[in-house]
Specification:
about 290 residues; alpha/beta; Rossmann fold; 8-stranded mixed beta sheet; two-stranded antiparallel sheet; about 35% helix; globular
Length: about 290
């Protein structure tokens, strides 16, 4: 397929009491449909930038959105970062769109998309889970939380930020040009660099038990009546073989792909991941 030229615009949506910032790519000549990308916890919409542009050049309108408390979206005034809050925000975005999108979610974005699609049928045209399933490795989850909480006083330089990311995810090549990291951190008046998300995001005080959350997501998965795909990183310590088998029991028709990557699949193996996504979108469009 000949790649299209695209037009990029900044967009915003009203979530559940917060404003959500986003970007949109529209292919010239019309789109086959819309794809909405949801990033993982502690990331921003920019983690999807390359994938969103490439999918748009293949004929789909694409949208990336910063979750509440992340990137350029507003922080929750009440400190509420529960799954319910993220799902309600997503419903606000979906209600503002002219058509049902294919939801592509990594980690936190994935469980948000799964809960929204399963609990409100007719919300989406398809679902892609990126290295996340209803039941993930508790050790892998703990390592994510440990990484996110490891620098409460920020970093002295962008090089230190790059070192921290590489230590957590050695599968990803350390960037030579550190300017791209500016989208994931912000510099305060003290000159130090801090992650681009609200520290209250890590307050799990009112979060339901892990078993209750997993049961909720399993119920949502069983209720899916739309095309679905799971993409796992082969080196992921979050989604195990048992996690994959569990999802395939819950969603018997789900497509499964594995790429040579860690938990951050889109960044670790962007081109391979995006090729699988474009192929899946072709199947959705054919339906």
């Amino acid at each position: 397929m000949t790649e299209r030229s695209v037009q990029t615009t900044s967009v915003s949506f009203r979530g559940d009491g917060v404003r959500l910032a986003g970007d949109r790519w529209d292919p010239d000549g019309g789109a086959a449909g819309t794809v909405l990308f949801l990033h993982g916890g502690g990331q921003t919409r920019h983690s999807w930038g390359r994938a969103a542009e490439r999918v748009a050049r293949n004929g789909w309108a694409t949208i990336t959105v910063d979750a509440r408390g992340h990137g350029n979206s507003e922080w929750a005034p009440d400190g509420r970062y529960s799954l319910d809050a993220f799902v309600e925000d997503l419903y606000g975005v979906l209600d503002a769109l002219d058509e049902l999108p294919v939801l592509v979610g990594a980690s936190l974005g994935g469980i948000t998309a799964l809960a929204a699609a399963g609990e409100r049928p007719g919300s989406a045209a398809g679902l892609v889970l990126v290295d996340v399933t209803p039941r993930i490795s508790p050790e892998g989850r703990a390592r994510i939380v440990e990484f996110m909480a490891s620098a409460p006083d920020g970093f002295a330089s962008l090089a230190d930020v790059a070192d921290a990311i590489h230590a957590y995810n050695p599968h990803r090549r350390r960037p030579r040009n550190l300017d791209g990291l500016r989208k994931n951190v912000r510099q305060r008046a003290d000159g130090r660099w801090y992650w681009h998300w609200d520290p209250q995001f890590l307050d799990f005080g009112d979060e339901p038990s892990r078993d209750a959350a997993e049961d909720r997501l399993a119920d949502a998965a069983r209720a899916l009546k739309i095309p679905a795909m799971l993409v796992r990183g082969s080196e992921s310590d979050v989604v195990t073989d048992e996690s994959v088998a569990d999802l395939r029991r819950l969603v018997p028709g789900a497509r499964f792909e594995e790429v040579a990557a860690g938990h951050m699949v889109a960044g670790d193996d962007n081109d391979v991941f995006t090729a699988h996504l474009v192929d899946f979108l072709g199947e959705v469009g054919a339906r």
